[in-house]
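Structure first, sequence second, as always.
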């Protein structure tokens, strides 16, 4: 083997090794996140290439917004997420120039346009942040933005089967409407949430607790509003179901517990080898890898008495995997066309100059890496529990995740007051 050929092969090996995936690049950021070092994670994010690369503008805002949100800096978190949402909206129709560039090199060189579930979660988490900051009106605005994005994606068949794992957006909207005393709107939203958890028989067991909670809220408000047809439907399917009277609840205070559990799966590259006649080519496509965690629910105590466990209202991990699966066939076809075009060009160049052909082939292999960019700071599930408490009285509320330390609160609420308590765990 000549020195030049050996040198090119050695360079290729080094280049391939240097081409770290996004998941690998932000590992240190996630390591700080998983142990609750939010400020340190934010500093590393600010110092990373993600903060300066224009093609990653939206992704940087997603990650930064979550780190701010976890620190309770809700206005700044929303500002970051709104900027990302606007960027993704602008990129919804990709320019011809960017499409051409991504075809020639690889998908990670193009602007990050977000997965279907990520686009919906941007305004949804913004809605939670507004509500946590006692701004119910803007919380409602963000929920409506969530619905607009869902309709847009479903019209393009990009949300197919993704949103069946999301009852939370409608359920949370119902809670916000209750806070604003818009009872009929709340009923509509709870019924939409119920339709989601019933949309697929395969997931009924996973969302069974959510279904019961939603039915209780529908029944409570339907009884209060004298909606006999709704009550009749509930009683036919669940004759033994009972709920707190809404008139009694109005005299009390209420705590909304939102538990964000675990870590959303992250993307890793998966290689597929395809024969092309004279040779074989490697296609690299992302797939999601689960991040293990143990605390899958949290138990709530009021004055040391157990009230119940949080129930899953949204499975972000399943939404992510379904979103990627929805575009797999389309994207693999695009990637295959690009790789084959690179291979043909390299072989033609090799016919004229063997060394140049080898260099082109090395470049093709080295640059054909899966786009593993994703919103890595997301939780795996969002869970909810509602707790009614006596007003004008100091209450001790304890949140106990399965394998995490108990978090204690002392609350004293006015009659009719609603308070949001949110909790995130990683292990």
């Amino acid at each position: 083997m000549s020195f030049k050929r050996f040198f090119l092969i050695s360079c290729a090996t080094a280049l391939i090794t240097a081409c770290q995936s996004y998941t690998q690049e932000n590992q240190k950021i996630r390591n700080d996140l998983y142990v609750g070092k939010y400020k340190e994670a934010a500093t590393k994010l600010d110092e990373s290439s993600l903060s300066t690369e224009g093609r990653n503008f939206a992704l940087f805002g997603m990650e930064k917004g979550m780190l701010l949100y976890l620190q309770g800096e809700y206005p700044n978190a929303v500002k970051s997420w709104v900027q990302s949402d606007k960027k993704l909206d602008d990129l919804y129709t990709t320019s011809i120039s960017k499409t051409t560039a991504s075809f020639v090199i690889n998908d990670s060189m193009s602007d990050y346009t977000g997965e279907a579930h990520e686009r919906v979660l941007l305004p949804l988490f913004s809605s939670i942040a507004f509500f946590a900051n006692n701004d119910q009106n803007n919380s409602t605005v963000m929920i409506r933005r969530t619905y607009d994005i869902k309709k847009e994606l479903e019209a393009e068949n990009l949300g197919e089967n993704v949103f069946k794992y999301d009852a939370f957006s409608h359920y949370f909207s119902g809670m916000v409407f209750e806070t604003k005393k818009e009872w009929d709107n709340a009923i509509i939203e709870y019924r939409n949430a119920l339709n989601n958890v019933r949309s697929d028989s395969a997931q009924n067991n996973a969302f069974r607790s959510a279904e019961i909670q939603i039915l209780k809220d529908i029944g409570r408000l339907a009884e209060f509003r004298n909606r006999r047809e709704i009550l009749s439907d509930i009683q036919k399917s669940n004759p033994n179901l009972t709920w707190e009277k809404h008139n009694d609840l109005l005299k009390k205070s209420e705590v909304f517990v939102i538990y964000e559990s675990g870590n959303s799966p992250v993307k890793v590259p998966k290689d597929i080898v395809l024969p092309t006649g004279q040779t074989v080519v490697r296609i690299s496509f992302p797939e999601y890898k689960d991040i293990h965690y143990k605390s899958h629910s949290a138990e709530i105590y009021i004055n040391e008495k157990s009230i119940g466990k949080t129930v899953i209202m949204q499975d972000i991990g399943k939404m992510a995997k379904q979103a990627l699966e929805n575009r797999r066939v389309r994207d693999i076809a695009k990637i295959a066309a690009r790789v084959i075009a690179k291979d043909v060009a390299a072989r033609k160049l090799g016919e004229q100059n063997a060394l140049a052909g080898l260099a082109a082939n090395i470049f093709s292999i080295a640059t054909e890496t899966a786009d593993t960019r994703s919103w890595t700071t997301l939780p795996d599930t969002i869970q909810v529990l509602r707790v009614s408490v006596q007003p004008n009285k100091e209450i001790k509320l304890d949140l106990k995740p399965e394998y995490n330390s108990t978090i204690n609160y002392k609350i004293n609420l006015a009659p009719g007051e609603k308070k949001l308590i949110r909790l995130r765990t990683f292990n």
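Margin note: The first helix runs from residue 3 to 18.
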